[in-house]
Amino acid sequence: MNGLKAEKVLLYRLIRVNIISEIVNLTKVVVWRLEGMIQQKKYGVVYTPNRLADFVASLIKNEAKQDKYYIQTILDPACGEGALLKAVKNIIEDCENFYGIDVDTEVIDNLSKKNEPKTTFICNDAILPKNVKVKTSTYWRRKLSVISAVIANPPWSSEKIYDDQRLEMAGFSLNAGQYDSYVLFLELAYQIVDEGGYFAFIIPDSLFDSQNEYLRRFLAEKTQIRVIARLGEKIFDEVNRATTVIVCRKAIPTDESVTMCFRLNTENRKQREHHNPNNAWLHSLRSF
Ligand SMILES: C[S@@+](CC[C@H](N)C(=O)[O-])C[C@H]1O[C@@H](n2cnc3c(N)ncnc32)[C@H](O)[C@@H]1O
């Protein structure tokens, strides 16, 4: 083989190697993206816009203020990138501890690196934590000790990712028949929050469907439902489901218990992109 021919062969091989490694890299990216999409679908990853996070945080603050209840710790059991915890930190300054749990390792790693004061992030499955033999609520109560309030935009997926028998052993009872994953998070919040504490949830309007009669009965009998805010559709860009915010106090309802209910009007719904600490949504709720 003369020199020129050898160079050509070498060049050809190099190009081939490059093309093959490019294809391998591209395949890795596609697989990685697909895995991400599957994970997103499985765990219902849609983060809360600031405006909605501020609104929900304000609702908890207002209820606690009204009851003269001191919020010592707040937990988001499906914290994602921490939008809701950030919102409560901004307005409930005297709170001593903020806890965030999420199954997503990457998200928790990133949040933990920020070393935020008074804040602890835990990577685990909030519903069935790994290697736990006791009931889920017992585990979290032991680990976190005080939980004055739970704030959450949990996954809404209807995909059943847990075995019913395991859920029962872990202390869940609302997972009968067809249910969305937020139902488990609501039951968990009720179980782990302190007596007299609050839980505020961003959930879909399926709360009002017939399949959720048992859940509604559970909340109506065991908690004081303080707020039901029906925000309608298009609150989240990626989700075409109507959204409701519900705030409950863990206390047996009395004859004096009042539930504030409202529907967001179209004009206020349009302002959703705008981040506004003096939340106009809250004003419409107050004026209801
Ligand atoms: C709808 S996103 C909301 C995230 C965040 N709370 C917010 O408002 O932006 C739901 C989050 O729940 C997490 N998640 C889903 N299933 C979970 C589980 N079993 N335990 C803990 N986190 C979970 C997902 O990884 C995702 O970050």
Can you tell me about this structure?
The N and C termini lie far apart (89 Å). Helix 2 crosses helix 3. The chain has an 8-stranded mixed beta sheet, sandwiched between helices. The protein is of the alpha/beta class. It is elongated, with a radius of gyration of 23 Å. The chain folds into 2 domains: 43 residues; 243 residues, Rossmann fold (3-Layer(aba) Sandwich). The longest helix has 41 residues. S-adenosylmethionine binds next to helix 3 and strand 2.
Structure at a glance:
With 288 residues, the chain is α/β, with parallel strands linked by helices.
Which helices and strands, and how do they pair?
Blueprint: H1 3-43, H2 50-67, E1 73-76, H3 83-91, E2 97-102, H4 105-113, E3 119-123, H5 136-144, E4 149-152, H6 164-169, H7 181-192, E5 198-204, H8 213-222, E6 224-232, E7 243-249, E8 260-263, H9 266-270, H10 280-286
Parallel strand pairs: 1-2, 1-4, 2-3, 4-5, 6-8
Antiparallel strand pairs: 5-7, 6-7
The structure holds S-adenosylmethionine.
S-adenosylmethionine binds at residues 43-48, 76, 78-81, 83-84, 101-104, 125-127, 153-155.
